Amino acid sequence: MTIGSLPLRYKISIDRERCMECERCIDNCSYGVFRREGDRILVDSRKCTACHRCIAMCPRDAITLEECPCDYRSHPLWTRQAREAIYNQANSGKIILSGMGNAQDYPVIFDRLVLDACQVTNPSIDPLREPMEVRTYIGKKPSRIEVMRKENGDVELATTVAPNLQAETPIMIGHMSYGAISLNAQLSMARAVAETGTFMGTGEGGLHSRLYPYQEHMIVQVASGRFGVDIDYLERGSAIEIKIGQGAKPGIGGHLPGEKVCMDVSCTRMIPLGSDAISPAPHHDIYSIEDLAQLVRSLKEATEWKKPVFVKIAAVHNAAAIAAGIARSSADAIVIDGFRGGTGAAPRVFRDHVGIPIEAAVASVDAKLRSQGIRNEVSLIASGGIRESADVAKAIALGADAVYIGTAALVAMGCRVCGSCYRNLCPWGIATQEERLVQRLDPEVASHQVANLIKAWTLELAELMGAAGINSIESLRGNRDRLRGYMLDESLMSVLDVKQVGA
Amino acid sequence: MDGSAIKRALSMMNERGSGEGAGYVAYGAYPEYEDCYALHVFFDNIHETKRTLEAMLEQWGHIVHDERIRTYDQPNLRTVHIPWRYFFKPYAGLMAHSTSPEDDIVSQIVMKINTAHTGALIYSSGKNVGVFKAAGWPEEVADFYRIEDYEGYIWLAHNRYPTNTPGWWGGAHPFNLLDWSVVHNGEITSYGTNRRYIESYGYICTMFTDTEVVAYLMDHLVRKQNLDADLAVRALAPPFWDDIDRMPEKEQDLNRALRLAYGPAMMNGPFAIVVANHEMMVGFTDRIKLRPLVVGEHGDRLYISSEEAAIRAMDPNVERISMPPAGKPIIGRVAR
Does the keyword Flavoprotein apply (chain A) (predicted)? Predict the structure, then answer.
């Protein structure tokens, strides 16, 4: 007996009254849901991923989408997802691949934290009328300042300050590689960060020559596969990031499906055409913390100590102690990627079950570094599941210097979070290398959208700070007194070091 | 000068308070014991708690002299604590590897006693300096201690309108740690950041108020980080980045480094603060001056106040009155 076909995940319907058979849906759907037969447009809903491209492009609003039109017998334990994963694996005998971030229904801690505002005893500060500082320096900070008093009374700095990135907003864009996403997507984001005075990561896929004009705003990544890494690459970046792990799949390396390795990707990444690029799970020159310190120093030596070096780890149970070890190396910044972090491709079991939420990770890393008196010497970048400016404010109040956004930047370019990034068929031209799909994403337009998002969030952040009577981002950082936990349990509140509402 | 003028000055500003807390600090109050740390302690009772404290003091040093601080009953001031003073000499040898062992011993005793909730609170711990405070109107508190009987070369005074901890004697200003005293008008919105920063260096905030953190920050920046007072104040209320960007290069380097190194010490929110130690008095406001600060000068005397009226009450012939711009420190150094 075979398992047979599974119930539809999505059902597409066309309102025949409204449809004018213009065939835009057929042109736009890269998954092949629509076809024309005679005078009718027919639908194969089984191929649908809910990417919404057809709906967005239909001039008559004739298309509707329904999720899970056919129910399973309901059961609290044997959910639809659990059963379908089993059918899938019974058929294939393989690991299930998935895209985007954690799809498990864990509570979102950000949504159970509320921010503070001033009333009476201190005035809120109006960012329209008063200075409001969101500028953020990312890098090693001196532990103390030495000055020289000159004979004429002038004071001069005697301490050498390590190079820092100067970001005009604490919002940066995290690492999404060329390969995982298209060149047009990277170009759009590169223009956006250049326009807004912030930074983005290259991911582990090297730096395409068309991004060279924006290299001052690019953080180049060195991951376990070393794809695209040579001295030219290192020298072009404004900073270098060693990727140890990523929130979507802690403990394993990057995975770029061969479908996405076109000629240009193969050249930039320095790998054979059409081959899967599977990065090793560990760096094979890092088996312990002292090896990491060595790699940090090696990269600094190679670039003459002119660039900050970041180390990115996935948020795992022991993140705080690991971060303390990283802070003791010459690393300038630590990136913590929470378990909601997105990805182009990850085994579903890792994406949904490994790692911890960014809120708890940032709080415990910040506390650990403080308890060792070294918190201010390194920058802390939080990423993984930042959806709006309030999340940014909360992450900073929990102890982050800055955040990386990923999925949010893609959504600003049109992404509908359908989670099929690993298939090379992204109809929005974002997570694909198919030329005809990539062309759909116009960097001229998309860069404005991403820049708009960063500007809008930065404005909202300034308003939130002003309402809290704070006019500089340093005074929000780690200021957990301005947060309250709402319906959080006591033990989690003690990890977050926040009080409950009303207290 | 004795305390009568400052009592007069403070009474000019009664509508800034609510009769629930006032206090004074005099530098130069104890010339006969100037080599000893003068510890002022509020005891809940002197039967149990006093012994605990004295045992600890004897363990770390030598009590040269101690006495009940003389007070005079006031009709509207309810005595809830017994104020006591110790003149204390720590044994420096007990704090190895420290560059300021005596200070470290005293500071550690203060932190320990004040966090242990033993019914004793050390609210003044410097040499030749004394804090006098209680819950009441400024004149009542002054008369309670007969503040005019004390002589000082620097005086700070404060009238409180509490919101957080009304009526608590320990919550009245000035706050003091070792040589530093502070009075503060305002609310520090960055308190959560400042407290966590300073606590990572071993200070413990115990007074349930944002003000004490200022005393600890100054102690840390000046004594531990070796900054001059003007740079310490600049770290607490630094110039805006836009202003730094317009400075000459060397000045930019200094100010940027100061903000990078001491960002978590930077104070936000509305405040006017005066801090003092045995050789100087420094007044400054937040970076957009959300609280008033007026400065008066007469010969070698410097007055800093929330209101001009208070300065004129002390010195009707004051020569110069000015209002410093936001964030700018006003520093008066003791003439030698």
Answer: yes
Within an 8 Å CB–CB cutoff, is residue B201 touching chain A?
yes
Distance CA A422, CA A426 (A): 9
Number of H helices, E strands in chain B: 10, 15
Do B178-336 and B21-173 fall under one CATH topology? no
| Chain B residues in contact with A471 (beta carbon < 8 A) | 268, 287-288
| Architecture of the domain made up of B21-173 | 2-Layer Sandwich (3.30)
**Which candidate from A121, A133, A474 shows the least CB-CB separation from B264?**
A474
How many Cβ atoms sit within 10 Å of the Cβ of residue B52? Answer: 14
Taking Cα atoms as reference points, which of B221, B263, B237 lies closest to residue A147? B221
B96, two tokens: 């190895």
B233 in A contact zone (CB under 8 Å): no
For A325-394, list the strands marked E by DSSP.
333-337, 346-347, 379-383
Q: For chain A, give every residue range classified as CATH 3.20.20.70.
A: 157-500
Chain B nearest CA to A348, separation (Å): 39
* A-to-B residue pairs, Cβ atoms closer than 8 angstroms: 128
Q: Which of B250, B258, B266 sits opposite A145 (nearest CB)?
A: B258
Q: How far is B194 from chain A (nearest CA, A)?
A: 8
Nearest Cβ partner for B192 among A143, A472, A482 = A482
Return the CATH number of the domain spanning residue range A157-500: 3.20.20.70
Q: Give contacts of A468 with chain B, Cβ < 8 Å.
A: 189
Which residues in A294-399 belong to E strands, given as ranges? 309-314, 333-337, 346-347, 379-383
CA B191 vs CA A48, A104, A460, B197, B297: distances in Å: 52, 37, 22, 10, 32
Taking the Cβ of residue B260 and every Cβ of chain A, the question of whether any pair is shorter than 8 Å is answered with yes
Report the SS3 class of residue A396. Answer: helix
User: Candidates 1.10.15.40, 3.60.20.10, 3.30.70.330, 3.90.550.10; correct CATH number of B178-336?
Assistant: 3.60.20.10
- Rounded to 5 degrees, φ, ψ at A448 are -65, -40
* Contact at CB, A161 and B260, closer than 8 angstroms: yes
Is residue B125 within 8 Å of residue B30, measured between CB atoms? no
Q: Which CATH number fits domain A10-94: 3.40.50.300, 3.30.70.20, 3.90.79.10, 3.40.50.12780?
A: 3.30.70.20
Provide the residue-wise pLDDT of chain A in tens; the chain has 503 residues.
578 889 999 999 999 999 999 999 999 999 999 999 998 999 999 999 999 999 999 999 999 999 999 999 999 999 999 999 999 999 999 999 888 889 899 999 999 999 999 998 889 999 999 999 999 999 999 999 999 988 888 899 999 999 999 999 999 999 999 999 999 999 999 999 999 999 999 999 999 999 999 999 999 999 999 999 999 999 999 999 999 999 999 999 988 999 999 999 999 999 999 999 999 999 999 999 999 999 999 999 999 999 999 999 999 999 999 999 999 999 999 999 999 999 888 999 999 999 999 999 999 999 999 999 999 999 999 999 999 999 999 999 999 999 999 999 999 999 999 999 999 999 999 999 999 999 999 999 999 999 999 999 999 999 999 999 999 999 999 999 999 999 999 999 999 999 999 99
CB contact under 8 A, B197 and A376: yes
Q: Residue A373 and residue B200: Cβ atoms within 8 Å?
A: yes
Distance separating the N- and C-terminal Cα atoms of chain A: 61
CA distance A113 to A399: 14
Closest Cβ opposite residue B196 in set A141, A159, A370: A370
Nearest partner of B155 among B23, B294, B309, B298, judged by Cα: B23
CA distances from A407 to A45, A68, A315, A412 (A): 26, 24, 17, 9
Q: Which residue ranges make up each domain of chain B?
A: 21-173, 178-336
